[in-house]
Amino acid sequence: MTTIQSSAVGKEGSKQELATLLYGTYELINISTLYTRSRSLIIRSNALAIRHINHNPPQNDRQTDRQTDRQTDRQTDRQTDRQTDRQTDRQTDRQTDRQTDRQTRQTDRQTDRQTDRQTDRQTDRQTDRQTDRQTDRQKDRQTDRQTDRQIDR
């Protein structure tokens, strides 16, 4: 059983009053029952009832606190940096993909147009040649027939 002497606590005590009284000096741990007897506060508990917290921690504690703070800050910064980097990478990748897609579509269209024009020109040339040959042959035949008729007369 642990007894804490205090003039600040009245006849009726509660966990809340104890917490208010001991705030900053003590940390409450596993308190099962609380009683007041005149000006003494008695805490009954199976485990350790209160743990004293030193208000002026020694130099080592301050140094440890600073190191912990620095470490936490570094870790937070690294995480933030990683997240930002990932997000930036994703955005850049998406943008690059979109741009590449646009360029590919544009190039495909251009290539298709050029191929179509070339094919059209070739087809036109071939058709023209064929037509010219046929016309020439027909003319030659006609001329030959006419010549043959005239010779026969």
Number of strands: 5
Task: Based on Cα principal axes, name the global outline.
Answer: rod-shaped
Largest sheet: 3 strands, antiparallel
Strand content: 5-15%
Unreliable sequence segments: 1-13, 23-57
Tell me which oligomeric state these chains represent. Answer: single chain
The end-to-end span amounts to: 152 Å
Instruction: Give the ordered list of helices and strands.
Output: EHEEEEH
* Spatial strand sequence of the major β-sheet: 1-4-3
Q: Over the alpha carbons, how many angstroms does the gyration radius reach?
A: 50 Å
| Helix-strand makeup class | alpha+beta
Q: Count helical runs.
A: 2
Q: What is the helix fraction of residues, given as a range?
A: 55-70%
- Rounded mean pLDDT score: 73
Please provide a written account of the structure.
The chain is rod-shaped and about 135 Å long. Helix content is 67%, strand content 13%. It is built from 2 helices and 5 strands. Among the domains are: 2-55, no CATH class; 56-98. It starts with a strand and ends with a helix. The strands form 2 sheets. It has a 3-stranded antiparallel sheet with strand order 1-4-3, with no helix packed on it. The protein has a two-stranded antiparallel sheet with strand order 2-5. It is an alpha+beta fold and 153 residues long.
